[in-house]
């Protein structure tokens, strides 16, 4: 594998476990409303959230309308989500408080993906480490707090005024890093956001394929890993 100086990680589903965080936030929201909720209720809400995210088009990050309106669409998603929760379970007249608690809990320090902290810690002595993420600034900074001591920079779409996979996001990120694209490696779980965006910018990407998904034909990848610690071995020849 070629030599790099800068390793850029995606956040959600790569370094931090959004699904675990969202489930925790649902439990907190139900508690705020004084509603006893178990696994069945939380799983139903989590499943609806995934469906609603997709129905709103938020997975289609290549579409210009999503790229332009992503952050407001994110907030629309949360409002729609609590329309569902209120309709299905009732919130004892505490919809506003439950939704606010959900957002606070989702902004708390995140549950790292297995092996994430160890991998970043191991690489930080040899490379400059960055995180590039789509999302709301206040939420992502708090969620990524465990990784901040190892970072040389954190790029959040709301602050950048552009989302992955747009060229604008990658150009602004490269400017912030102050590096040539050939010195950078992107590591992420999303082929449409991380890999496609990196490829369009001329940047190499290692795909973190946690779930054994199929590759997209014609999309160049510098490597593929099923667990984050494998990245250390993949880059091992550079040390």
Features of this protein?
alpha/beta, 6-stranded parallel beta sheet, single chain, 239 residues, 6 strands, globular
Describe the structure.
The structure is a single chain. Helix content is 49%, strand content 11%. It is an alpha/beta fold. β2 (128-133), α6 and β3 (153-156) form a beta-alpha-beta unit. The mean pLDDT is 94.
What is the fold's blueprint, element by element?
Elements: E1 6-9, H1 18-32, H2 39-55, H3 64-89, H4 95-106, H5 116-124, E2 128-133, H6 137-143, E3 153-156, H7 157-160, H8 167-177, E4 184-188, H9 191-201, E5 204-208, E6 223-225, H10 229-234
Parallel strand pairs: 1-2, 1-4, 2-3, 4-5, 5-6
Helix pairs in contact: 1-2, 1-4, 2-3
Annotation field: number of helices: 10
Uncertain parts? none
State the helical fraction.
40-55%
Termini, distance in Å?
12 Å
The biggest beta sheet is recorded as: 6 strands, parallel
Radius of gyration: 18 Å
Q: What is the global morphology?
A: globular
- The beta-strand count equals 6
Strand order of the largest sheet: 3-2-1-4-5-6
Secondary-structure element series? EHHHHHEHEHHEHEEH
Write down the overall mean pLDDT: 94
Strand content: 5-15%
């Amino acid at each position: 594998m070629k030599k790099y100086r800068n390793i850029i990680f995606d956040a959600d589903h790569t370094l931090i476990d959004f699904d675990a965080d969202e489930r925790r936030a649902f439990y907190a929201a139900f508690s705020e409303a004084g509603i006893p909720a178990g696994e069945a209720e939380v799983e139903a809400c989590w499943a609806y959230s995934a469906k609603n995210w997709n129905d709103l088009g938020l997975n289609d990050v290549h579409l210009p309308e999503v790229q332009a309106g992503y952050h407001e669409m994110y907030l629309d998603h949360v409002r729609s989500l609590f329309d569902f929760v209120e309709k299905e379970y009732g919130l004892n007249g505490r919809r506003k408080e439950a939704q606010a608690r959900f957002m606070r809990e989702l902004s708390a320090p995140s549950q790292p993906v297995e092996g994430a902290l160890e991998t970043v810690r191991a690489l930080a002595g040899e490379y400059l480490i960055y995180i590039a993420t789509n999302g709301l600034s206040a939420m992502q900074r708090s969620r990524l707090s465990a990784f901040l001591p190892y970072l040389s920079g954190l790029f959040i779409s709301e602050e950048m005024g552009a989302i992955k996979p747009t060229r604008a996001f990658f150009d602004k990120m490269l400017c912030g890093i102050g590096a040539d694209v050939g010195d950078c490696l992107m590591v992420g779980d999303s082929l449409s956001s991380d890999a496609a965006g990196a490829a369009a910018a001329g940047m190499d990407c290692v795909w973190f394929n946690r779930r054994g998904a199929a590759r997209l034909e014609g999309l160049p990848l510098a490597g593929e890993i099923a667990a984050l610690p494998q990245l250390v071995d993949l880059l091992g020849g550079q040390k």
